[in-house]
């Protein structure tokens, strides 16, 4: 397969294909399994109006539920979420530095939460903005397993203009600056497109690192 070129999808939104080695992806898959064992398990997030998200999510550092962050998972089992490990923070710093070709931006990046989403073949994510953070620092997104269509739009509307980007296992996507509060979503996952060498036999994992801007 030809290497896919790195692309600026919108101002401040950069797609870096094949950023994670297979070995690093396998390490992340193992870590995600471990995080799912507790203290808070993966769950389908309940929405305030009664809906349930099709992805399953576990959080690190801070627990996200619509539409705020807390230290304990009061909508799951009340447990305190697992810590965000230093090695993952470090990976996020490197992601920002390399996506923006800006070592200082990488050094300044201090994520304090990660959302780990698992998509089975039917799971989707509707167009939304990541806007429960009190910070304009970029979001770092890592994808492992099945490919998906990642729809990345604009800060003003759920509709056009947007770009449909194919996110493949190992890809990095960073969105910050003028795109930090852009609408985005996952309209479809492509079953059986992942590489079993990552340790994920089916489905898709997405890890987003964020800065909440919150203090205890
Ligand atoms: O799965 C993805 O690629 C995006 C996930 C996402 O937008 C989110 O967790 O807020
Ligand atoms: Fe999001």
Find the count of extended strands (DSSP E, 2+ residues).
14
Widest sheet, order of strands: 1-2-12-9-14-7-4-3
The CATH architecture is Sandwich
Give the overall shape.
Answer: globular
CATH class: Mainly Beta
For the record, the count of structural domains works out to: 1
Percent helix among the residues? Answer: 10-25%
Separate helix tally: 3
Query: Averaged pLDDT, please?
Result: 97
Name the beta content range: 25-35%
| Head-to-tail CA distance between termini | 47 Å
SSE order: EEHEEEEHHEEEEEEEE
Secondary-structure-based class equals: alpha+beta
Bound small-molecule species: 2-oxoglutaric acid, fe (ii) ion
Query: What value does the Rg take, in angstroms?
Result: 16 Å
CATH topology: Jelly Rolls
- Low-confidence sequence ranges: none
């Amino acid at each position: 397969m030809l290497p896919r070129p790195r692309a600026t999808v919108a101002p401040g939104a950069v797609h870096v294909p094949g950023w994670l080695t297979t070995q690093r992806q396998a390490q992340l898959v193992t870590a995600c399994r471990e995080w799912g064992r507790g203290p808070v398990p993966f769950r389908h997030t309940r929405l305030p109006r009664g809906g349930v998200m099709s992805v399953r999510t576990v959080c690190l550092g801070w627990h996200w539920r619509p539409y705020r962050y807390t230290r304990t998972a009061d909508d799951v089992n009340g447990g305190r979420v697992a810590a965000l490990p230093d090695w993952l923070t470090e990976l996020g710093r490197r992601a920002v530095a390399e996506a923006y070709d800006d070592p200082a931006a990488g050094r300044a990046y201090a994520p304090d939460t990660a959302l780990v989403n698992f998509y089975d073949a039917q799971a989707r994510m509707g167009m939304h903005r990541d806007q429960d953070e009190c910070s304009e620092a970029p979001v770092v997104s890592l994808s492992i397993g099945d490919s998906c269509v990642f729809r990345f739009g604009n800060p003003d509307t759920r509709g056009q203009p947007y770009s449909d980007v194919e996110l493949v296992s190992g890809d990095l996507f960073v969105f910050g600056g003028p795109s930090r509060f852009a609408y985005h979503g996952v309209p479809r996952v492509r079953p059986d497109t992942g590489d079993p060498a990552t340790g994920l036999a089916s489905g898709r994992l997405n890890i987003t690192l964020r800065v909440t801007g919150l203090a205890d």
